[in-house]
Every structure is written in structure tokens, then in C-alpha cells.
Specification:
The protein contains 13 helices and 13 strands. The protein has a domain of 230 residues: NAD(P)-binding Rossmann-like Domain (Rossmann fold, 3-Layer(aba) Sandwich). Strand 5, helix 5 and strand 6 form a beta-alpha-beta unit. Helix content is 43%, strand content 16%. It is of the alpha/beta class. Helix 1 crosses helix 7, helix 4 runs parallel beside helix 5 and helix 6 packs parallel to helix 8. Strands 3-2-1-4-5-6-11 form a 7-stranded parallel β-sheet, with helices on both faces. The protein has a two-stranded parallel ribbon with strand order 7-10. Bound molecules: nicotinamide-adenine-dinucleotide (NAD) and thymidine-5'-diphosphate. The site of thymidine-5'-diphosphate (TYD) has 12 residues, from helix 6 and strand 8.
Length: 354
């Protein structure tokens, strides 16, 4: 690696570690045998938070789960003091664009106010490194060519991306004004295990398995740059350890595809895995009304993290999608509990009664 290792976090506070990306980070880090620190996972367990996602590490002596709100400054302050936290890795957010269009309020509360409260705790604690996990959606929409760089101007288009952009600005302002040691990452669309099936890829897999219509917004030619979630987890850890304080890193997958291309790749995978006829699955494709303000294209130039921290995606899209399809086929129980809301019962039985 060309980047110098400058930090050895001993006590991490990870927010949103029961969600899709946060849980991948928790599993990734605790999967590193040479990680000798401790990790407190603070998660409110909203509809998107599911302790099943981190069940594999629940008994790891380096791990502790706390249910709570990032906007509860008193709780966060106590956790930082009690656990002598030296690093906050901030994933917690409301994350679904469609929900932000229908009901933006929670996005402002968690993504903006919640991040502000965390920053206040970090500022008071003085020596905490703050890594903020953000999205490429803050940059807005691209034309047919070009890619987002770290210095691309912000131009968020949805309440979700605007709330993430606001949180990014707060993080930068705390670094600039109070010399808070921060790093920031803006990542492209993730896919992989344990993603809540309101997002494109798990939704399409679930519907393919159940022979239900595959709702494609608009003409299906919107482009996203897909990254396997474990690659994102590795990028975050690399930035936390070796990223230069005050810097932003773009993280992307070299996986630009239209939504229609993604759905066709998923059809191929599901047909191969289940023996269902490809033509029958193809006939489920259904064009529906477009998302209001739908960004046309995202693409990431990740040369900075590649050059400075020697990170690049390990998984190519074809093998990542195959693995992802296999995961959802092998975890029908998980999918069913999430789809029906029964994972809330699992939470009551396995967590709240402890
Ligand atoms: P997710 O919706 O799957 O998970 C969010 C988690 O945050 C859940 O566990 C939820 O319970 C928790 N949470 C929500 N509000 C909270 C609060 N007030 N206090 C404590 N916990 C709270 O989201 P995700 O897809 O895992 O995204 C995680 C982060 O990564 C977000 O900041 C998102 O902007 C960023 N990101 C995601 C992607 C992606 O493709 N999923 C891409 C780039 C960046
Ligand atoms: P999504 O997974 O919601 O991620 P984001 O909006 O953050 O990029 O959607 C990915 C793409 O898939 C986006 O262009 C919207 C599109 N999409 C559909 O066409 N149909 C769907 O049912 C969903 C959920 C998304």
C-alpha cells in the first residue's frame, strides 16, 4: 500500500451497524483476526436495521450492540466516554430515495440533525477521529460521459441526497472550523447480502423468485455504478486507518450498467440457479411510472483512493451478482422475515428480552 498507516483505532463507535452497509463493515472488521480493538454498534433499529445481519458476530468479545438514536447526544456522549472511543465510523442514515420523496422529514432528522449531534459529541471529546460515510448522489446527475471526482461541485437532486450533502458540509465545516480530525467517503451504489429489499437488486431478485412483476422506472436506461458491499467496507476501513485527515475519497465499482442491464443479468443468474425459463422471467419486466427527479447517470472516478491507499474493487459485477443471487436464494427465511415484518418478532425474542 502506498499510503502510510497513520491510525490504529482501538475503540470504534460504528453507527448504523445493523443496516446493509454498516453490518457488512462490522462483519468485515470483526473478521480481521488482527483487529484487537473493540467495536460498539449504535443503531436505532428502524425498519432498515436488523440484528440478524450481525448475528454472526453477536458473541464476539470485541463487539457490543447498543440500541439508540444518533441524535441522542447524551447517550452518544456517554458511550464515547465509557468506551474511550477514539474513532466514530458513521453509517446511520435514512437511505432510500423513494421514501425521501414521499416522507422527507426523517431524512432531515437523522441525516442532518443526527450527524450534527454526533459531530458535537466528537468536538467535545477532542481526540476522536470522525469518518463520515456518504454517497455519490450528492454530486447530482451526469450526462452520457464523465465521472464524479472529489472536487465535483455538489448538486443533490432528491431529499435523500440533499440531506446527505448537508451532512457532508457539516462534517467539512467541523474539520475547518474546529480542526476536528475527519475523513469522508462518497461511494456509488452498493449491492450484496442483507440489503433491504426495497432497493433495486434485492427487490428484483425477490420478485424473480416469486414470479412477480419487475418494476422498471421510466425507460430503464438510468445508469448506476455498482460496487459489492464488502469492497465498500474494505475501502472505509482503509480510509479510517490511512486516509489523510480532512480529505474526501470517492469509492466506486467500475460497474456502470443501466437498470435494464442489471435486471437482465439478474434474470440470467436466477434462471441458472433455479432452472426457471429465461423467457418466463423476461416477461416479468414491467415499465412503470418514473421516479420524480430521477437522476440519469452516476459514475465514480476512484483514482484518488486507488493511488493514495491502493484500494480498488476486488469483485467484478458478474461474480458479485451471482454470489448475491445465491445469498438471497439461500436465505429465503431472512428475506421472508424482512418482507413480512416478522424480523421485528425476531428482534423482540432475541434482543429485547435479554
Ligand atoms: P440502511 O438503510 O440499510 O441502514 C441504515 C441503518 O441506520 C439501519 O440499521 C438503521 O436502523 C440505522 N439508523 C437509521 N436511523 C438511525 C438513527 N437515528 N440512529 C441510529 N441508527 C439509525 O442503509 P445503508 O444502505 O446500509 O447505508 C448506510 C450508509 O451508507 C448511509 O449513510 C448511506 O448514505 C451510505 N451509502 C449507502 C450506499 C448504498 O448503496 N446502500 C451507497 C453509498 C453510501
Ligand atoms: P435504488 O436501489 O433505489 O438506488 P438509488 O436510487 O439510490 O440509486 O435504485 C437504483 C436504480 O434502480 C435507480 O435508477 C432507480 C431504479 N429502480 C427501478 O427502476 N425500480 C425499482 O423498483 C427500484 C427500487 C429502483
Amino acid at each position: 500500500m502506498s499510503g502510510r498507516v497513520v491510525r490504529e483505532p482501538r475503540s470504534l463507535l460504528v453507527t448504523g451497524g445493523a443496516g446493509f452497509v454498516g453490518s457488512a463493515f462490522v462483519r468485515y472488521l470483526l473478521g480481521q483476526a488482527d483487529f484487537r480493538g473493540t467495536l460498539v454498534n449504535l443503531d436505532l433499529l428502524t425498519y432498515a436495521g436488523n440484528l440478524e445481519n450481525v448475528a454472526a458476530v453477536a458473541d464476539d468479545p470485541r463487539y457490543k450492540f447498543v440500541r439508540g438514536d444518533i441524535a441522542d447526544g447524551e447517550l452518544v456522549g456517554r458511550l464515547v466516554r465509557e468506551h474511550e472511543v477514539d474513532t466514530i465510523v458513521h453509517f446511520a442514515a435514512e437511505s432510500h430515495v423513494d421514501r425521501s420523496i414521499v416522507a422527507p422529514s426523517a431524512f432531515i432528522e437523522t441525516n442532518v440533525v443526527g450527524t450534527f449531534r454526533l459531530l458535537e459529541v466528537a468536538r467535545a471529546a477532542k481526540s476522536v477521529h470522525f469518518h463520515h460515510v456518504s454517497t455519490d448522489e450528492v454530486f447530482g446527475s451526469l450526462g452520457p460521459t464523465g465521472a464524479f471526482r472529489e472536487d465535483t461541485p455538489y448538486r443533490p437532486n432528491s431529499p435523500y441526497s440533499a440531506s446527505k450533502a448537508a451532512s457532508d458540509h457539516l462534517v467539512r465545516a467541523y474539520a475547518h472550523t474546529y480542526a476536528l480530525p475527519i475523513t469522508l467517503s462518497n461511494c456509488s451504489n452498493n449491492y450484496g447480502p442483507y440489503q433491504f429489499p426495497e432497493k433495486l437488486i434485492p427487490l428484483m431478485i425477490m420478485n424473480l423468485v416469486e414470479d412477480k412483476p419487475l418494476p422498471i422506472y421510466g425507460d430503464g436506461l438510468n445508469v448506476r455504478d455498482w460496487l459489492y458491499v464488502d469492497d465498500h467496507a474494505e475501502a472505509v476501513w482503509r480510509i479510517v486507518r490511512s486516509g489523510r485527515a480532512g480529505e474526501t475519497y470517492n469509492v466506486g465499482g467500475e460497474g456502470e450498467r443501466t437498470n435494464l442491464e442489471i435486471v437482465r443479468l439478474l434474470i440470467d443468474c436466477v434462471a441458472a440457479e433455479t432452472g426457471k425459463a429465461r423467457s418466463a422471467l423476461e416477461s416479468l419486466v414491467t415499465f412503470v411510472r418514473d421516479r420524480p427527479g430521477h437522476d440519469r447517470r452516476y459514475a465514480i472516478d476512484f483514482s484518488k483512493i486507488q493511488q493514495e491507499l491502493a484500494w480498488s474493487p476486488r469483485r467484478d459485477l458478474a461474480s458479485g451478482l451471482r454470489e448475491t443471487v445465491r445469498f438471497y436464494l439461500d436465505h429465503r427465511g431472512w428475506l421472508e422475515r424482512v418482507r413480512t415484518g416478522a424480523y421485528r418478532d425476531w428482534l423482540r425474542e432475541n434482543y429485547e428480552q435479554r
